[in-house]
Structure formats: structure tokens, C-alpha cells
């Protein structure tokens, strides 16, 4: 059967101070009053039944997620599968996907799992669902394949990974192409060369996948046997009283490794493995920075984007956000700035340096015992 797994464990540090450890970016109202996580859940309507949609996120966010997605707490179905998979701590995407895939496979050994992000805006939904339908069908007909999705670059971005494409999969591939290599975030000159080569050669890596859970776990065992053995032992205890304790004890010992480095990059070079990419012909927006968030807001003739109580005069290209009711953010003569106010913190930075906020977050997260995290 088909399953859908939404990854919602990101910290969203580049959207500080709106995104915090207690309320990360995927839970912040962003699209028509809905959070990005709710939007990701709704996108799956008609593709995967509600009872086979799962979320993997931090255990400490369980209550907050179930508040916006109460469906996860209802109709979990037969067996031991908890539709909220809570990580004791973040160990990057490989551990999250290995754990989730193992738990799903224990429930359904033939499960085909779509892995979806919770921090992207993808429209129209119909195009998204049509593309995912192709991927599920491809894996159903070719269960050895891991399928990923590429987005045509509109600029030479150094913030995204790239898929290097090879020959078409075949007549039954629905336009899928073989991935010859995963290219992690490049420098500007390399990114420019990728864009110049065209979308028939390079696409942005969307971070979404479809695979047979058992096949993915087979490759984890091949490339990261220690992690696989630990995950297998934990998954066998799912539904038992000691499951949470076993997970909490083992998880901190897992090395931090992305699925791209841990499995996908290796599989692209492995003659016994196969990775296919399907182009996502939809508007795809990664809400990972303030300029991206600003694109969701209404923009005036001078390119200013605002939210909340704001007043701008003689400004251009400025993002101004007031997240505290009754607090006015006023800007005069500002050009290409980001100004964000919350109840306990205010950010001011050049728009061009918004992607560097992790530098600042490293400082503020240690202040007053982590109060500003």
C-alpha cells in the first residue's frame, strides 16, 4: 500500500526570531492562515488516505503538531504504527527516514513510502499530485528504484543541492531520468555552470522521495550497517512498553548524516542500485529564509513586504514583520533590510545576508540559558 511521510523536524534558524525551538517554522501560520505543515498535509488529499499519512518530527513538538493535525491521533489503524514518529533529538534526515521506514515496513512489508517536506510551498496542488502519482506508479512497477524529484533552477543558487541527470529510465518511466550524481550545495561559479548546462542536465534537489520501504532499508544496511542494526532493533520493539526508552537511549549515538550523503549519493554510484528523478513542473518555494518568507506576503510598488502592524515611508525592498499584537514596526528610508519584531526579540539585518542568520543564532541561543532559542 501507499504511505506518505512528512518530515517536520527542521529548526528553521534562518527564520529567527519568528521560528523558535518551541515553535519551529513548519508550525508558524504562513499560507492563508495555515501552517506549512498543515499545507503539506492538505497537499496529499486524493493521493494517500489520511490513515496512511504520518509525520516524523521532534518528540517535544508532539503536542503542538497534534493540535494543528488532530487527524494523526485518530484512526491509526490496526497494528503498532504510531502516525506521529517522535525523534528524541535531531540526527539529520538519514536517521529519521531509516526509523520511519523501519516502523512502516514492520506494519506493512510491501509499503511504498512517499517522503515529503514540511517547509515548502508547492502550487498548484493538482500538478504536485499528478507528479507524485507518476512516482508511486513507477516504484510499484520497478520496486528496486528510489525516486526523487527535481525542480528547474531559476537562478544559480548556492543554497540548494543539485541532481545531475543521465539517460531516461524508459518508456514506462513517465519522463523519469536516471540520476548520475547528487551534487551538494555548490559555490557560485559551479552553480552558474549548472544553470548554464540547462534543466536537461541539472535540477535542484527538492528533498522529496518515493521508495519501497524495504528497498530503502536494504540500502541503509549496505551503506550504514551500524545505524541499520540499531534501527532494526528499535523497530522490533514498536508498540511495546520499552520502545520509547530504547529509542531515547540509542538515538543520541547515531551520527548526524543526511539521506543525500548517507544513501542517495552512494546509490547513484552503485551499479546494483538505481535512482530516478522526475521533474516537478510546479511552483516550488523553499521557505527557509526571510526573503523566501517575504515572497508569501503582499508586496507594494517599491518591493516592500509586510506583515502585522507596520508603517513604511520612503523604503524599498524591505521586509517588515511585527508578530506582537499592538506593537508597531516603523521604518523610514530603509533599503533592502529585514526587520522582524516578536515579543522578546527584534532582528535587523541586510536582506542580502539573511541566509547567514545561523551565525547570529549561534550567539543568541546561548544567551540567558537559551531563552532566545
Structure report:
The protein is of the alpha/beta class. It folds into two domains: 2-286, Alpha-Beta Complex (Spore Coat Polysaccharide Biosynthesis Protein SpsA, Chain A), CATH 3.90.550.10; 290-370, no CATH class. Helix content is 30%, strand content 26%. It contains eleven helices and 19 strands. It has helices spanning 36-42, 62-68, 92-107, 125-141, 188-197, 213-223, 225-235, 243-250, 259-269, 290-294, 357-364; strands spanning 2-7, 29-31, 34-35, 53-58, 84-87, 112-117, 120-123, 145-151, 162-168, 177-183, 202-212, 274-279, 283-286, 305-307, 310-313, 319-322, 329-332, 337-341, 346-350. A five-stranded mixed beta barrel has the order 8-11-9-10-12, surrounded by four helices. Strands 14-16-18-19 form a four-stranded mixed β-sheet. β18 and β19 form a beta hairpin. α3 (92-107) packs across α7, α3 packs across α9 and α6 packs across α9 (259-269). It is globular. The model has no long low-confidence stretch (mean pLDDT 91).
